[in-house]
Amino acid sequence: MIIISTSQLRAARGLLGWSQEKLAEKAHIPLVSLLDYETGARKMLDTTAASLKYELERSGVIFADDETGVSLLPPPRVVPLESLNSSNDE
Q: Which of 37, 48, 66, 74 has CA 20 to 30 A from 89's CA?
């Protein structure tokens, strides 16, 4: 069973700067389902929770195992191709 608390879900959206509409679209779920889940009006199905978690994690969100919070992965370090040469080899 996949568990995402309503506070984790809202915090994850906030970290990414996503609206409810954007997350619902990315996770391929009805907006009304997301709204109901975030307000606690209904329980989330496991398949819907999995879809939400997948999209958020794919975008860099890390969920705390104990449902206490979320964090965001740091952006990857980009090295310009022109700076790569044989002197960089180890």
A: 74
Q: What b/e readout covers 23-35, taking b as 16+ CB neighbours within 10 angstroms?
A: bbebbebeeebbe
Token reading at 21: 């509409």
Planar angle of CA 29, 16, 4, nearest 5 degrees: 50
Contacts of 3 (CB under 8 A, 6+ apart): 49, 67
Number of residues that this document lists for the chain: 90
CATH superfamily entry for domain 6-67:
lambda repressor-like DNA-binding domains (1.10.260.40)
Q: What is the mean pLDDT of residues 3-10?
A: 87
